[in-house]
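Bumping with the actual sequence this time:
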Amino acid sequence: MIKSRVLQKLRSGEFVRVAGISRVTDPWLAELVGRLGFDVIWLDMEHRSFGYQVIDPMSLACRATGIDLMVRVLKTGYSSPMRCLEFGANGLMVPHVRSVEEARQWVEWCRFPPVGRRGFDGAGADADYMLADPIAHLRNGNEETFLALQIEDREAVECVEEIAALTGVDLLFVGPADLTISYGVPFQFDHASVQRAIDRVAAAVAKSGKWWGTTSSSPEAAQKALDRGARMVTCGGDHTFLVRGFQNAIQEFGGLRIR
C-alpha cells in the first residue's frame, strides 16, 4: 500500500503544488506531471465528461512517479467515493459542501470504522489488489487518504467552524469563483464579503488543526494564498495550457503570407 505524498508534506509543515488534468486523461500526461515534480494531480469529474475508467490508469501513472491523485467526485451517492478510492485515488475533493450534515455524510462514506462507515472490499488498487493485510488496509485507508471539502457557498461559510472540526475531514478548499457568485458579486474576487469569507475559512482551519487550499491564477496569487495560511495551491491545468498554447500559436503564425 502507498502513502500519501500530500499528507506527508502537509504533516511536515510544507505546502502542496497541484496540477489540474481534466482534458488529456491518457496516463502519459499524469506520469509526465509526476516526473516534473508536482505533488498531486487534480482530476475533475464534476465538470468533465470522462468516467471512472480513467482513474485506474491515471492512478497507476501517479504511483509510478510518487505523486498523489485527487479526484473531484461526482455527487451521486455512496458508490462515487468508493469507486474513486478503490481505483487508486489518494484523495477526494467534494464540491459544494453546504452543511455540517453533508460534510458528516462524506466522512461516513470515505472512512472505515470507527471513523466512518465505508465498506470493505480489499481487491482494489488501494489494497494492492488483495495483497495487503486486511487490517493494515483499514488503517491505511483512514490514515493515508485525504478528504478535501470545497467551501464555495455562503451557506458553508456560515457553518465552516463546525465543518472544519469534524474528525475525518483533512482539508477545506475554497472555490473563489463560485464563492463570489454565491455572495452576489460574480468574479469580484477582492470584494470585502468574499475576502471576509476566506478569512473565516482560514481561521476555522487554524483552530481545528486542519489545512486549507485554493485555486491560484498566477505564482503571485499562489504566494498570497500561502502567506494567508493556505497549504494547497493550484499551478495550472491542461485545459488552460491548451487554450493559451493555441491562442499563442495563431498569433505567432498570424503574420504568414503567400509571397
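The C-alpha cells above came from a reply further down the thread. The two ends are 63 Å apart (CA to CA).
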